[in-house]
Amino acid sequence: MQRTPGTPLNDAASSHQVGDADSPEPADDPSAGSPSSAANESGRDDDGSSGGRSWKWTVVFGGVGLLILVLDQVTKALALAHLTPGEPVDVIGSLLKFNLIRNSGAAFSLGAGYTPYISAVQITVALGVVYLSRKLGSAGWAVAFGLLFGGAVGNILDRIFREPSPFHGHVVDFLQTPHWAIFNVADMAVTSAAVLLVIQTLRGIRLDGTREHRQ
């Protein structure tokens, strides 16, 4: 068979090769490597805070506070119903007794005679804890704040609603250990909160959950 002069045999193939070589590579995804995508991959918002973190610790704070408050009020009601002032009951030998008293002072019967001022301080503390709870970013701080809030409110309710009069009410105490003042669940919670706050501070953990860089 005779080939027609001037007719290239590989025009189609050559045109495809040239087209393939000249075609631009697809552009990268514009979102790749951007600050927002990196932030999303790390689970943090643009402001550097972990999404939903503050709400989680606020719920922990509220749950612990409510638990302490309910436990405090229930145990006080049981003490009033089943104990007689001046008649202690041995629970664990001499290590723990139920001994019902009415306390006009602060924790562990301190500051008797200053009930209105103590009430004002406790209310201020409770409000301050609620305000600062918005910044919680640590389990330790959340639990400590819950213990502090529940304990403070538990004794505040006694001072407001119990005899002899509003804001002069006496707190119900009924737990007694050797060489220690008689106390209640609210007092235990406030003391535990103080210890936990000291531990968090010594560990260098701030309220928002970040850690101090010490040299």
UniProtKB/TrEMBL annotation:
Main EC class of this protein? hydrolase
The uppermost taxa in this organism's lineage are:
Bacteria, Bacillati, Actinomycetota, Actinomycetes, Propionibacteriales
Catalytic residue list: 173, 187
Biological processes per GO annotation: proteolysis
Q: What is its EC number?
A: 3.4.23.36
Q: Which GO terms describe its molecular function?
A: aspartic-type endopeptidase activity
Q: In which pathway does it act?
A: Protein modification; lipoprotein biosynthesis (signal peptide cleavage)
Keyword Transmembrane belongs to the record: yes
What spans are recorded as compositionally biased (Polar residues)?
A: 1-17
Membrane topology is: Multi-pass membrane protein
Sorted keywords for this record are: Aspartyl protease, Cell membrane, Hydrolase, Membrane, Protease, Transmembrane, Transmembrane helix
Catalysed reactions listed for this entry: Release of signal peptides from bacterial membrane prolipoproteins. Hydrolyzes -Xaa-Yaa-Zaa-|-(S,diacylglyceryl)Cys-, in which Xaa is hydrophobic (preferably Leu), and Yaa (Ala or Ser) and Zaa (Gly or Ala) have small, neutral side chains
Q: Where in the cell is it found?
A: Cell membrane
- Pfam families, alphabetically? Peptidase_A8
According to UniProt, the name of this protein is Lipoprotein signal peptidase
Q: Region entry Disordered: which residue ranges?
A: 1-51
* Domain of life of the native organism: Bacteria
Listed GO CC annotations:
plasma membrane
- Bias class Low complexity marks the residues at 29-39
List the signal peptide residues: none
Q: Which NCBIfam families match?
A: lspA
The role this protein plays is:
This protein specifically catalyzes the removal of signal peptides from prolipoproteins.
